[in-house]
Amino acid sequence: MDAFANILWHHDKFLGITWNAWKIIGWLGNAAFFSRFFVQWYATEKLKRVVVPATFWWLSLAGSLLLLSYALFYQRDSVFIFAYAFTWLPYIRNLVIHHRHAAAHLECPQCGNSCPPQSNFCFDCGNKLADAVERARV
Length: 138
Ligand SMILES: [Zn+2]
Fold this sequence. Notes:
Order of helices and strands: HEEHHHHEEH
Helix content: 55-70%
Structural class: mainly alpha
Largest sheet: 2 strands, antiparallel
Bound molecules: zinc ion
Number of helices: 6
Radius of gyration: 23 Å
Distance between the termini: 78 Å
């Protein structure tokens, strides 16, 4: 075995970690939490304004549930359990709000563009939106 392989695998440990199913679950939780920052950063750079995409909340939810199960069933440490016991609540709430906001978007009948809720005109083609016509009648 060469020197590099010796650094990765040493005394039956990969990266100095003794692996089991719970270690994989815990590290998947860490990976989900860590990757969400890149998702948020990418979305923000792309739109040139601070945005938090739904994927960020899905990764947060997955990470917190994986780490909570790791803490509950493997680590069994009260501090660690409490740290992840309630974090899933705002993640689910944000996903619900995200879904409602997306569902409230208006589709332009002329160009098919998805316009923000309460829009009167399509910001792409300028067509008056049907919902705006309905709202004007009431
Ligand atoms: Zn349009």
